[in-house]
Amino acid sequence: MNIVECRRCPRLVAWREQVAREKKQEFRDWDYWGQPVPSFGGEEARLLIIGLAPGAHGANRTGRMFTGDASGRWLYRALHRAGFANQPTWERHDDGLRLVDCYITAVIHCAPPGNKPLPAEIKNCRPYLADELARLRNVRVVVALGQIAFMNYLQVAGVRPRPKFAHGAVYSLRPMLIASYHPSRQNTNTGKLTEPMLDAVFAQARCALASR
Fold it and tell me: What are the angstrom distances between the C-alpha of 212 and each of 56, 141, 168, 171, 200?
């Protein structure tokens, strides 16, 4: 399934392309990606991370998941500290960043207006996640960043009954599921999510992989 060619959601297509044309003043010299953002990482990975969506001036600009915005800064620093990334950089798709035993995807692959995808858009993108789960045969731990990612993963994985979301909670499923607040500015600027809290999530993932 070629995610980059997807045009299933007219609202998202119009928005991602409008943002790419108009740009943000500080990125006026950039050639924005402006397309669905593919997942990042090798399919042999044992850790799967699920985010919400590309940022309008982050991944929608750079073409790589969690790259070029504040959420990515937090995520890649945490992944580097936990040994899941070779470096903590996050600015550009060609900065040399490599994931180690880790794969990053999202609930939807196009930047939504206001960072809020509609239920129909989430549903339209769900087959891509289902396809990835079928291909990622080595996954032993899943980290869901935010409640939407958490609930969407449970639905695609067919988990019943669905447990409640709680930051830092570990769910004894196969693969193991760990819930985390999303490293969005809404959470990090308010202190709802701190770096030690995010580090603890990936330390738990590292510990789980060591025992599996």
Answer: 37, 10, 19, 15, 19
Count of C-beta atoms within a 10 Å radius of residue 5: 8
List pLDDT tens digits, range 100-146.
999 999 999 999 999 999 999 999 999 999 999 999 999 999 999 99
- The structure's pTM equals 0.97
Map out the domains of the chain as residue ranges: 3-210
**What is the domain class of 3-210 according to CATH?**
alpha beta
